[in-house]
Design a protein that fits this description.
Elements (H helix, E strand, L loop, with lengths): L2 E6 L3 E6 L3 E2 L4 H12 L4 E5 L5 E2 L1 H16 L3 E5 L3 H9 L7 E3 L2 H6 L3
Parallel strand pairs: 2-4, 3-5, 4-6, 6-7
Antiparallel strand pairs: 1-2
Helix pairs in contact: 1-2
């Protein structure tokens, strides 16, 4: 699982997932890596531009990240969802659960 992270502004971490799929085959590794990257971060943006497919276990992992961040009074946002991934989020009504942005820059700027 390849995740690239960078800090923007004072304390916003932007994490770019470098995988085609987030599914049962790699969700465990994703969760472990994300826990390390967001453990002490309160404002997180996950750039999903490389993802073409997310299954139910991937959705569960994203919800877990959201809950972890929310438990610290933080915020977890998603950006750059492909059409197919966005369609899944809308079908599952996850677009009502997550703050979804067109790109990482707009997600970061929405914090201010």
């Amino acid at each position: 699982m390849k995740l690239i992270n960078r800090i923007q502004g004072d304390d916003i971490v932007v994490i770019e997932i470098q995988e085609d799929n987030l599914d049962a085959s790699n969700v465990r590794e994703f969760r472990e890596e994300m826990q390390k990257l967001i453990k002490d971060k309160n404002r997180v943006v996950l750039d999903m531009s490389a993802l073409k497919f997310v299954d139910s276990s991937g959705l569960g992992a994203l919800i877990s990240c959201l809950r972890d961040t929310n438990s610290r009074k933080g915020d977890f946002r998603l950006s750059s969802l492909s059409r197919s991934v966005l369609a899944l989020f809308e079908l599952m009504r996850m677009h009502r659960v997550f703050s979804i942005h067109d790109n990482a820059d707009s997600a970061v700027s929405s914090y201010t």
